[in-house]
TrEMBL record:
Keywords: Hydrolase, Metal-binding, Zinc. Residues 32-254 form the Succinylglutamate desuccinylase/Aspartoacylase catalytic domain. This is Succinylglutamate desuccinylase. Pfam families: AstE_AspA_cat.
């Protein structure tokens, strides 16, 4: 195992922040897996999972069982970790730019396409390596103006040539779920089975140029520009490891074992993986997710648990005004799986308090939470 330390652009003199990456596997590996955790710095279950995975990979490497290189970044966002205001973590948005940490990753597809335009051959495998090399160079040529841009470029450069990219997040109170492009569902389905994912959301583009989509959309644009000219590239998946409070050794070991089994199934690790368990639910379109909002402010009293299936028009919460005694039911307009609900118990008018996964797409445009 090798540890690399990546210095970020210093915001002011006398300060420094670093990203640490841990590299396992043979130097002549035929493939690469990249995993990072806590890009939203207050989402910590993935950080614990990767801590457990570090121990397991060290054992597997010592036993000579790693076939691919595996890169881990357990603390992807040192900027956000420091953002604590009056004992409340502020890990989702950058305080300086007010940007979501998981948005606006650079798009260098035009630059890379122009670079390789006249260099591609009739060898798809060679062309893939050429595009990846040009992608690395394009990212290295970017000059960050802020520490946030420096962090994004560092993470993107570490992952850009991977065959499998797994970005570990979590939600408020939630069941295990995934976000991915429908093109990659055949490759990702075993991961969903091993993890016991209750929901898998498919979309070509959710909006916002998030970390996983900066790879997905890059390769989609390369394929549109150079159809059939290179071997199938890798894929990226956002893995939501339940809720923010699920920082638990038992759950982390369980998720770590699922990742190990998946990497064995992908031939990244030598061994015999068990058959994946049954898929708990078929994937559904991200455009079928209903954000359920409270029409008024007041105390939130949930009437349904995450993991419950709701009928259209079913009450999932009551909003109680303790001054007027008014009780306002909040219902979902479409049936589906209640996969996320808020950790807050005081609503403001117009606040999204839950998300319900429906089977049919009905939304358009920007599909992610702020």
């Amino acid at each position: 195992m090798q540890t690399h330390v990546h210095e970020l652009l210093a915001a002011v003199p006398g300060t420094t922040r670093q990203i640490h990456s841990f590299h396992y596997g043979p130097g002549n590996a035929s493939g690469k897996v990249y995993l990072q955790a806590s890009l939203h710095a207050d989402e910590l279950p993935g950080m614990l999972v990767l801590w457990h995975l570090k121990q397991r990979l060290a054992q597997l490497e010592a036993a000579g069982l790693l076939r691919w290189s595996v890169v881990l970044v357990p603390v992807a966002n040192p900027l956000g970790l420091e953002q604590v205001l009056m004992d409340v973590p502020q890990g989702r948005f950058d305080n300086d730019s007010r940007e979501n940490f998981n948005r606006f990753f650079p798009d260098v597809s035009q630059q890379v396409g122009d670079c390789v335009q006249g260099l591609l051959t009739d060898d798809p495998a060679s062309n893939l390596q050429l595009i990846r090399s040009s992608l690395r160079q394009a990212l290295a040529s970017q000059v960050p103006a802020t520490q946030l841009q420096s962090m994004r470029l560092t993470l993107q450069a570490l992952a850009c040539d991977a065959d499998i990219v797994l970005d570990l997040h979590c939600d408020f109170e939630a069941v295990q779920h995934l976000y991915l492009s429908p093109d990659f569902w055949p490759q990702v389905e075993p991961l969903a089975r091993y993890l016991g994912a209750r929901a898998c959301f498919l979309t070509k583009e959710a909006g916002g140029q998030s970390f996983d989509e900066c790879f997905t959309l890059f390769w989609e644009q390369m394929q549109a520009r150079f159809p059939g000219r290179f071997s199938p590239p890798g894929f990226a998946v956002t893995v939501e490891l339940r809720g923010v409070a699920d920082v638990d050794h038992g759950l982390a070991r369980q998720d770590c074992q699922a990742l190990i089994q998946y990497l064995i199934q992908c031939k990244a690790i030598d061994g015999q993986a068990p058959c994946p368990p049954p898929l708990l639910n078929r994937p559904t379109p991200l455009a079928g997710v209903e954000p359920v909002m409270s029409p008024v402010g007041g105390l939130i009293v949930f009437c349904a648990q995450v993991g419950d299936y709701l009928e259209a028009g079913q009450t999932l919460a009551e909003i109680i005004d303790p001054i007027t005694d008014r009780v306002t039911p909040v219902v979902c307009t479409r049936g589906g799986l209640l996969y996320v609900r808020s950790v807050r118990r005081m609503a403001t008018a117009g606040m999204t308090i839950a998300h319900v996964a429906g089977a049919k797409a009905y939304r358009q445009g920007y599909l992610l939470s702020p």
